[in-house]
Amino acid sequence: MAPRPKTRDRIIEASLALFNAQGERNVTTNHIAAHLGISPGNLYYHFPNKQAIVAELFGQYESRVDQFLRLPPAREIQVQDKALYLEALLDAMWAYRFLHRDLEGLLDANRELAQRYQVFAARCLQHAQAIYRGFVVAGILVMDDAQTEALALNAWIILTSWVRFLGTVSAGADQLDQLQLRRGIYQVLALESGFVAPAAREAVAALQREYFVELEPLLQVPSS
């Protein structure tokens, strides 16, 4: 029999599930304690307040993104790496989607977290630019430095807004389905269309076709 998770780990796991399902603003430490069947005092032994729990979850998200948002260490970057990067990033953003549903509110309420996020976002943009430069060196994209910077920024804006967009137009299912994930990836691939090198157009077009889905299934308009 597997050992029972430590109380601290159980608090983090339950908080993430509740924040994702109900929104961080709607969940209190009392809700988390009741969900786990522990006393509020037991929760406060591990975390002094809800902001400390949010900070811990952000640290997990930050570490997860930092692990994959890097150039391949021992080989030249390839077209298929585009999908690997984008799927990994969207998966991470969905796993911690409460962060993106009300990011401004979370950062306004916690100055230390806001400072951490600013450093994190700047680091992600630097890595994204390095990755796009890798695609240029590999002969997959044709861009100058200004275009690389703009493309990295536009891709970041789309990706960090995608979960919020889904929350405004979908039925709000607890799990992100494959159609929603693939359309988000396609949106970023579409940004790059005008920069694809002639020799890579066929491979990039095939990748775009693989991730394209009709927009209508995502726009779940209630019937009158």
TrEMBL record:
Query: What's in the keyword line of the UniProt record?
Result: DNA-binding
Q: What is the lineage of its organism?
A: Bacteria, Pseudomonadati, Pseudomonadota, Gammaproteobacteria, Pseudomonadales
* Start and end residues of each HTH tetR-type domain: 5-65
Protein name listed in UniProt: TetR/AcrR family transcriptional regulator
Q: Which Pfam families match?
A: TetR, TetR_N
Feature: DNA-binding region: 28-47
* Residues annotated as transmembrane: none
InterPro entries in the record: Homeodomain-like_sf (IPR009057), HTH-type_TetR-like_transc_reg (IPR050109), HTH_TetR (IPR001647), TetR (IPR025722)
User: What is the organism field in this record?
Assistant: Pseudomonas songnenensis
